[in-house]
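> @MW can you paste both from yesterday?
MW: sure, first one:
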Amino acid sequence: MLGIADADSAENNSGSKSVIIYPVACAVPDRKPNAPKLSGKFLRFVFVQGSYLHSFYKKDVVTEESSAILK
């Protein structure tokens, strides 16, 4: 992913030094009932066909809500 050979998600516990996806660590304050669990900017992700995430989502583009600030 993104040219990082050992990129991984924290949930896999692979020991990778390049974990790029972490679980949300805190609750969103004042979340309204039935509101999305995350709160923040909506991000658009475009996946490369044949990549792991493309095979997982089975879509070329997805939009996700984020509670983290991406650098």
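MW: second:
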Amino acid sequence: MLRVEETFSIERPPQVVFDYVVQADNLADWQTSKTFAEQITDGPPRRGTRIRERTKMPGRNEWEQIVEFAEFERPRLLGTHIVEGPAPIDGRWTFEPDGDATRVHFEAWGDLHGPQRLLQPLLKLAVARQFKKYHRNLRRNLEAR
């Protein structure tokens, strides 16, 4: 099983960070490998909300996946599950108040199969590096507001 974790702080309150993260319109601004993201479930974001996203990583073909909010407790917890797509890596963010800031803890995990399983050590490093970059973007975007 592939598993990565990261903890970081953002100088904004948890509800601001949470609300930014759950908006599909913001996704490509902080997860910069996303070329497209749209909420395909009606209504405001909540548990069960689905987002269609397209991802393009350097040296790879673009792919599409459907992500579902499997856990949703505003403003403290967001868990995502890949419903359809080739990258079976789920994630969970927890948001805790830390004075005027938010302490964010992130975990990602997934069972890899076939050739991906053989490449697991390299994929783990790549996934960790990619999410570290995403989270730097997230911090930068929110703190610039």
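> thanks! The radius of gyration is 15 Å.
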